[in-house]
Every structure is written in structure tokens, then in C-alpha cells.
Amino acid sequence: MSKKRKLIFRILIGLNILLIAIVIWGFIKMNFVKEQVLLTEVQYNLVELEGLIAHQSDNNWSEPNLVTTELGDILEGISLGITTGEQLGTLSNSDKKTLSLLYSKLNQYPNDELYSFVDLTEDDKKNFEQLREILRDVGLGLNISISNSMDPFMRKVEELEEKLKLNSPIK
Prior knowledge:
Blueprint lengths: L2 H56 L6 H24 L4 H14 L15 H17 L11 H18 L4
């Protein structure tokens, strides 16, 4: 091979390596976006929900709409996480199924929609207090360390969905 061909060959090899690095970097960023949506919009809000339920229970449910609004935010976060994961192609079928089942279970609790607040009955308050216990049992609560990684979070979601299926007073 002539010197010119060797130089062109080396440049092409370098460009291919650069292109592969760019593709890998893009995939990592897409996966990061999916994880951040689920962790911030679902996991952190579930922890906050547990804390709000405890606070409302301790204060005779003085502001119950804080709980129902937070639950509405969680439902929106789950929906956004599923949509984002599907659009990016980074959400596995099992994760989608687990999140969809959790969505359907949590959606059975009273939750607020835009400009529409729900009035809670005594049974609703008891159901939320039981939900709080379930959240704490699976490791989603205030003063409980949580992971910033998807795998432990998805295991908690699976466990939460199972416990809601078995123990939830709302069927």
C-alpha cells in the first residue's frame, strides 16, 4: 500500500471509532434520561407521598389534598416514564408491565386532577394509611435510604405492586 492509502485507511479507522463512541454516548444519555424520569418523578414522589400521609395522619388530615395531589403527580410520573422509555426504546417489556400494573393499582386510590380536588372519606384515609405502611415495608419512605439506580428501584416497584395486589383494601 502506498503512503497515501495508509493515511486514508488510518483516518477512516479513526472516524469509525469516533462514530461508534458517539453512538454509545447517545445510548447512555437516552438510558440516563429514562432512569432520571422514573427516579425523580416516581421514586422520590413515592417517598414524599409516604411522608405526606404520615403528616396528615398525625395532624388529623387537616389538608388531605396534599396527599391526593401527590398521588396524582406519581401517576403522571409513571405515565411519563412509560412513554419516555417506550419512545427511547429503553424500557423493557417487564418494566413496562410492572409500571403499568402499579399505575392501575395506585389509580384506584382517590387522586386529584387538574383543578379538581377529591373529598376523602374515613375509609379513604384508612386506605391511605395502609398504603403508607406498604410503602415503608418495601423501602419507600422518609428516613429510609433509597438507591439512585434503576434495578433496586424496579425491585421495589415489583414488591410494591405485589403487596398492593395482596393487601390493598381497594380491589
